[in-house]
């Protein structure tokens, strides 16, 4: 029976080819496939991100291309790859994701990629961080990823870039927040020097938000100008809680983390920095 079904499947594919339905192979990987998705709307943000394994049907130029629909949950091959990220990253039904449209790439780093997207249903612009599940497992950062979302769901402050939503696809995690077009570093690079009044305002708002976090037992551990966004009124929005930790009262964290360029040159960090420095000088 198996041999007969295989032959039938082969004959069906040959017949489809003769009728002009040329089936194309998997999408090209890399940035070229991503940019081909910019400005289009498909059912599921993960398809816009260029998942491999999908096949498209070539049609006449005047006929619109079909939507690429994600497989139902019951057909996913590795359920463990879903359970690992629950409950911080739930599985959303397609109706919650099919209205997202990629507008631009905001940033790309070792943590993942941040996309600027348009929610066509709510008619709002948001930022979505896309993180590969495989990289999370390979780098043993599962707890860190889940704690980032858990912490952002606990906090509510006018100077914190609050979490909008989080979910998972078959191969990626998605963290959606409101979109801010400028950060403190890019502003400083543009103007070259801040006025004293602006520095006083930035410092006051930063101290307020850090005191708020510390009262909740949360340490950010990666405060820098690139992680301080500015809203339309010029107020701060502290973002990127990827290295943050929630500690009970009296506990300490000993992991060396953060951005190397912003770290002080202390002797215990010499193996990381790659050079020695006498603390007495």
TrEMBL record:
Gene3D superfamilies per UniProt: Phosphorylase Kinase, domain 1, Transferase(Phosphotransferase) domain 1
InterPro entries registered for this protein in UniProt: Kinase-like_dom_sf, Prot_kinase_dom, Ser/Thr_kinase_AS
Domain Protein kinase, first and last residues per copy: 100-281
Any one GO molecular function term: ATP binding
PROSITE patterns given in the database record: PROTEIN_KINASE_DOM, PROTEIN_KINASE_ST
A Pfam family annotated for this UniProt entry: Pkinase
Keywords in alphabetical order: ATP-binding, Kinase, Nucleotide-binding, Serine/threonine-protein kinase, Transferase
UniProt key word Transmembrane helix: no
PANTHER family: G PROTEIN-COUPLED RECEPTOR KINASE/RIBOSOMAL PROTEIN S6 KINASE (PTHR24355), RIBOSOMAL PROTEIN S6 KINASE-RELATED PROTEIN (PTHR24355:SF1)
UniProt name for this protein: Ribosomal protein S6 kinase related
Organism encoding this protein: Loxodonta africana
